[in-house]
Amino acid sequence: MKKNKFKRPPSLFYFRGNTDVILFLLERELKGGKVSQLCAPLGINTEFFYPNLGTLILSLMDLPYRSESLMNWYEKKLHKWSAKVDLDNHSHMAEITLDFYYFLKRNFEKRLKD
Fold this sequence. Notes:
The protein is an all-alpha fold. The chain has helices spanning 19-39, 54-60, 68-82, 90-113.
């Protein structure tokens, strides 16, 4: 019997290491934030839609220390960036995710230097 090798589907952006995984998780986090923002005014419990992947994302970004203030800052920024998400436009979603990733990297480096 011949074994088939599975090929990884191409991503929109090519990055080394675990950056693709981080972008995938950030995209899910941004989409979940947008859905929860749309459902909250209707009185729908948004706990079912919000994936809450922040701790996993920040640990994959190799931050040496994740304090409570850092997590609160991340949640505020995530809420602000998820408001920009258009759930129907996949290419715009990919751009926002990439921009948010670079925003986080830049600001985490600043915070670590201080």
